[in-house]
C-alpha cells in the first residue's frame, strides 16, 4: 500500500501541473523568461503552500497571498530563484493548516460555512466535485445558482456569491488564477476560501438579485428603486437609455450626498458601515447599468467598462493636483481583481457572466464609497500626469534617430515591480501592463457621451499613467515605500 506522503504528492501533481496557456486572447498573456527552473520553483511553491499553510494568516482572516505573487512573477518571466526567495519571505507570515473536525459532504455543506477549521475539508469536497462535474458546472452551481444563496429557514444562509466577492475579492482572484493558468488546485483553494469567508452583513446580494442581476431592463431598476424607502430618490433609467455605461453610474453617485461614510481607524469596519447603511442604494445604482446578453460581444464590452472604471477609481481618484498621487491599498485590489474578469468569464455561462459583472460592479462601488468617494477629476489627471519615465533608461546621444523618445516604460516598470518587496505591486503592474496591451490604443473621445465629466479626455494612456504613478509612489527595491490606508475623507 502506498504511503500517505506518496498519495499527497500524487494529489499535488494533479492539482498543480505545469500551467496551461491563457484561456482567451483577452486574458493576461505571459512575458518571455519562463524556464525549466522557474517552472520547478513555481510548482514547488504552489505544492508546498498547499500542504503546509492555511488560507488565512490570522484570526482576522487576512489572506495567504503566496500563490498570487508566485504566479504573477512566473507570468512576468521572473526567475526561479526569485520565486523561491519571495516564498521564503512570505512563508514567515503563514499559519499551519487546521485538521477539520469532520469531512464536508453535500449533506452538511451549509453547516460549516464561515468556519475556518473546515477549510481543508472544503478543499477536498470541491476537488471531488470538480473531478465529477468540471470547473464551469461547479462555479455555476456553487457560486451563481439560487440554491446556494438562500435557503428557507436556514440559520446560516449560504450567500456564496457574497462570500466570493467580498473581503477584497480574494476568493474571486484565487479562483481566476486557477482558470487562467489551468490549475485545479487554485480553483479548489479559492472555492474553499469562499466557503469559510465571513460576511460583512446580510443580503449583500438579496434574493431578487439572482433574477434581476442578469438583466439590464427598466423593470429591474424600477423594482430596486421602489425598494428604497429612506434617503431620497435615485435617478431612474428611461426606456430611451438603451445603453448605460459604468461612467454614467459613477457620475450619478458622485452627485448623491447620501452615500457617505464616517472615516475610522479600521477600514474593514468602515466597509461594513458602507454595506449596512448603503448597500440597497448602491445596488439600485448598479441596476441602472445595462447588460444585454443577447447582443454579440456584450459581455466583452461590459467587462471592458468595468476595467476602465476600476483603473480610473484607483488612479484618477487617487490623484490630486496639489498633493500628488496616493496609492490606496484597498482600491489597488479593485484593479488587481479586475484582471480576473477576462479569464473567469471563459468558464461561465451567459447568465452567470452577467451576474458576475453586475455583482462585481456593486462590490467596486461599495469599496469606492467605503474609501471616501474619491472624486474622478479627469481633466487635471490627463493634463498633469506623465506617460514617460521620470528618468529614461538611456538618454541616447546626438546620433539617436529619435533623441526625445523614451523606451517602453512598462519594461522598466515590470522589472522594478518583480524585485520590489511588496507582494501586491507586481500584481497591479501586471494588470496595468495587460490593460495597456489590450486597450492602450483607445483614442480620446472613446468615452464621449457618458455622464462622467471630461470622460472624453480619457484615452488608453490611462493605464501607463496609472502604472507610472504607482511605481513612483512605491519606490524601488532599495528604497521601498508602501500603500496608503488613509482613504479620501474630507
UniProtKB/TrEMBL annotation:
Alphabetized UniProt keyword annotations: Oxidoreductase
GO-annotated molecular function: oxidoreductase activity
InterPro entries xrefs: Questin_oxidase-like (IPR025337)
Annotated protein name in UniProt: Uncharacterized protein
Organism listed in the record: Pisolithus microcarpus 441
